[in-house]
Give the backbone structure.
Amino acid sequence: MSFSSDEVNFLVYRYLQESGFTHSAYTFGIESHISQSNINGALVPPAALLNIIQKGLQYTEAEISLSEDGSEHPIEPLSLIDAVIPDVVAARQKQYAKAHAEKTAAAASSNNTNGDDSGICKLSNHVDAMDVDESIEIPSSRARVLRGHESEVFICAWNPTKDLLASGSGDSTARIWNLCDNNSTNSPNQLVLQHCIQRGGTEVPSNKDVTSLDWNCDGTYLATGSYDGFARIWTTDGRLFSTLGQHKGPIFALKWNKEGNYILSAGVDKTTIIWDASSGKCTQQFAFHNAPALDVDWQSNDSFASCSTDERIHVCKLGVDKPIKTFQGHTNEVNAIKWDPQGELLASCSDDMTLKIWSMKHDTCVHDLQAHQKEIYTIKWSPTGQGTNNPNMNLVLASASFDSTVRLWDVEKGVCKHTLTKHQEPVYSVAFSPDGKYLASGSFDKCVYIWSVQVSAFASD
């Protein structure tokens, strides 16, 4: 058996990407020269590093559980740290060898005296059943699988006016899937949007992840952002309309404004850029952050908010050469920001495990919401309340965390109303249905749950 440092570095790089540490993955990739390796990432399955570590852990446990006579005895699971400490492994081996010898001797003594075995400790594999709330599993016959990508799919977005779904992947492509055909037995038509760069006078695949995409308001154009540092605009028939090149490094977020004349992007180069969608030119670049910009969100057609690993949130306006407002209060990097449907309240979530609500009328946060036990990865407002198509329903804010839970917040009162706890791994994505009645959540546990946003459907805190 042999392996190289390049192989180890690549698996670590992929682990960071899959865990959502996008800027850490970028920095590690640069320092370890991932782009210069000969490894074909499309052939490496997701969670490869975790799988090989798990196999190593199981091998170590197997070594401990086997006696000299070849028999196997049950052991308590090892932690990963215990498994790499030789003294701990050796101590466990001695402990179980001694217990095995004593058990064998006791059994022999019992057989010789025809006594009962009440003195022998019996190991049980019994596990108490978990309480699971009533749920309905969607049968595979009602699910449609879209096959084509050759690596992880990071993001997807529905076209607002047509039955088209866009997806972005680590195979350096985005794809537009035509789902107008309701025949689930046939694979839907797909357009492959190959992200290429100029090298030696010719176009070659960038081999960089497509990690952000967004449709314009009328669904006629799709914008994509890539780790190759370029944003691109595509037509619904898969034609490349424009390439936007100004960032000096990966693009982490990208959004159209409501009017559809500007695109906003955020990058590892610490800047945010407003692009003219018709010309593909940079209209204004904002260099106010001290570290990579992670997310952006439009407040209006010409003003927006941005957040960064520098723990700050800036509100900027087209044509103004400094932030019109800066929010400070988070104590770790800010992962995501979202304006409410009316553009009055700004929600932010952070690695400091807090969710904060800001208003342009105040310099400090309106609410500091603390309930999650680990980093909060993303947030979404419900399409309800004043200024929406569902004005008679209360406004709700959903937050998804590495603590494997989703929480629903009453922002007006500043309290958590419900905690959704079925996921077993970090939750990376949440989305409300257009009518605000349902919430979908996706997790690293490979499950998607659809929740009814009704009081009776959840157990209140």
Summary: The CA atoms of residues 170 and 209 lie 4 Å apart. The two ends are 52 Å apart (CA to CA).
